[in-house]
């Protein structure tokens, strides 16, 4: 009994020292206590001479049980903390996604303006699109079908920064009341001007463009423009024509 208690006590302690095996240590540790107590009883009755082994088995069994309990408590705490951390990270990611969605929605809303309003792009170029005015092409004209209504769109770009900035996309896109893209009008009057090149700090550049609208969709116009379509999403100006 004493030898059995000692061996089981050693096994219980060894398993208890390995955190991931704590759940296996309680059984040999408990058996070590049981067999050790029986061995001590036999030693008191003179039926055994290995009292020291039995006592050591009992002590190791108690230690093994303490290790098992400690490992269980440690595991419960670790799992709880890991769960709380994962939940906090999930909540953080969800809040971040919601904030990002809200930010994008606000940015999208800010990029839709009425004619005459200004929008400042991320590079510091402030763009204003005036309400379209009627445009009468001269005799030599391309892009304007007979019966259509031609309008002139004026785009003003102001450099609000401290360095010169280039306008990579000089042409706006104009949509009619049905959302269809309209055709650029080109004539020989020389009244149209495309914004190109650099805009110096504090200076402005003005572009004038003519577009042809079908008569059944000429009551409302939407103008899309970005100084650099590869870097900045278009801003939109719209309103009655």
Question: How would you briefly describe this protein structure?
Answer:
The chain is an alpha+beta fold and 241 residues long. Helix content is 41%, strand content 24%.
From the structure above, extract its key features.
3 helices; 241 residues; alpha+beta; rod-shaped; single chain; four-stranded mixed sheet
Write structural notes for this entry.
The protein is α+β, with helices and mostly antiparallel strands. Helices cover 41% and strands 24% of the residues. It has three helices and 14 strands. The protein has helices spanning 2-17, 22-44, 51-110; strands spanning 112-114, 118-120, 125-129, 133-134, 141-142, 149-159, 165-166, 173-175, 183-184, 186-187, 198-199, 204-213, 220-225, 235-240. Strands 2, 3, 4, 6, 9 and 12 form a six-stranded antiparallel β-sheet that branches. The model has no long low-confidence stretch (mean pLDDT 89).
């Amino acid at each position: 009994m004493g030898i059995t208690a000692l061996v089981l006590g050693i096994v219980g302690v060894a398993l208890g020292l390995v955190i991931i095996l704590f759940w296996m240590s309680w059984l040999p540790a408990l058996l070590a206590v049981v067999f050790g107590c029986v061995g001590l009883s036999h030693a008191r009755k003179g039926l055994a001479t290995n009292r020291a082994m039995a006592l050591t088995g009992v002590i190791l069994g108690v230690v093994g049980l303490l290790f098992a309990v400690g490992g269980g408590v440690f595991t419960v705490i670790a799992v709880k903390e890991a769960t709380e951390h994962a939940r906090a990270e999930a909540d953080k990611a969800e809040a971040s996604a919601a904030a990002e969605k809200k930010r994008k929605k606000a940015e999208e809303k800010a990029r839709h303006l009425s004619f005459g309003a200004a929008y400042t792009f991320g590079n510091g170029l402030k763009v204003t699109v005036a309400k379209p005015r009627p445009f009468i092409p001269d005799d030599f004209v391309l892009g304007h079908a007979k019966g259509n209504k031609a309008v002139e769109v004026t785009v003003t770009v102001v450099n609000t920064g401290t360095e010169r900035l280039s306008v990579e996309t000089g042409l706006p896109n104009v949509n009619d009341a049905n959302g269809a893209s309209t055709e650029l009008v080109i004539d020989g009057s020389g009244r149209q001007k495309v914004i190109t090149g650099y805009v110096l700090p504090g200076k402005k550049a003005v572009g004038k463009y003519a577009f042809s609208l079908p008569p059944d969709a000429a009551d409302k116009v939407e103008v899309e423009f970005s100084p650099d379509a590869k870097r900045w999403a278009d801003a939109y100006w719209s309103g009655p024509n």
